[in-house]
Design brief:
- The protein has 137 residues and is α+β, with helices and mostly antiparallel strands.
- It folds into 2 domains: 12-103, SH3 type barrels (Roll), CATH 2.30.30.790; 104-137.
- Helices cover 27% and strands 36% of the residues.
- It contains 2 helices and 5 strands, in the order αβββββα.
- The protein has helices spanning 17-21, 105-136, and strands at 30-39, 42-56, 64-71, 74-81, 87-94.
- A 5-stranded antiparallel sheet has the order 4-3-2-1-5, with helices on one face.
- The mean pLDDT is 84.
C-alpha cells in the first residue's frame, strides 16, 4: 500500500482572512479603505473614505461591500470585494445606528439635496442681478 500525503484544507492567500472576518462591517459605518494602486511600476496606497451602503454575502469568499462618498459635489460609489488582495486595510472611522440593511435610499436623498442647493444658488444669483440692475439706475 503506497503512502500518500494528505493535505489539510488550507487556503494560501496574500490577505489576512481572520482579520477581515473580524471586521464586522455594517451598513451605516463610515470606513476608510486603503487600496494598492500600481503606477509606472511603483505601488502606492490611496484612501477611499465613505459610507457603507450595503454589505452582501456575509463572510463568505465572494463577500462585497459598497462604499459611497461625495467627491467634488458628485456621488461616487465603489464595490469592494472583502477579501481582495488589492485592499491593504480597512478602517472603521465611525459607526452609525441605522434601521435598514441596505441604504440605497441615500442616493435619492443626496440628489434631492444637491438640486435644492442648486435652486438656492440660482435664486441668489437672480436676486443679485435684480439688486445690481437697481444700483445701475
Amino acid at each position: 500500500m503506497p503512502t500518500t500525503n494528505i493535505m489539510m484544507n488550507r487556503v494560501i492567500s496574500p490577505v489576512n482572512i481572520e482579520e477581515r472576518q473580524g471586521l464586522d462591517l455594517r451598513s451605516g459605518d463610515t470606513v476608510r479603505v486603503w487600496q494598492k494602486i500600481v503606477e509606472k511600476g511603483k505601488t502606492r496606497l490611496q484612501a477611499f473614505e465613505g459610507l457603507v451602503l450595503a454589505s452582501k454575502h456575509g463572510k463568505e469568499a465572494g463577500a462585497t461591500f459598497t462604499v459611497r462618498r461625495m467627491s467634488s459635489g458628485m456621488g461616487v460609489e465603489k464595490i469592494f470585494p472583502l477579501y481582495s488582495p488589492v485592499i491593504d486595510k480597512i478602517e472603521v472611522v465611525k459607526r452609525s445606528k441605522v434601521r435598514r440593511a441596505k441604504l440605497y435610499h441615500i442616493r435619492e436623498k443626496a440628489t434631492k439635496e444637491i438640486s435644492r442647493q442648486m435652486r438656492n444658488i440660482r435664486m441668489a444669483k437672480e436676486v443679485e442681478g435684480i439688486v445690481s440692475e437697481e444700483e445701475a439706475k
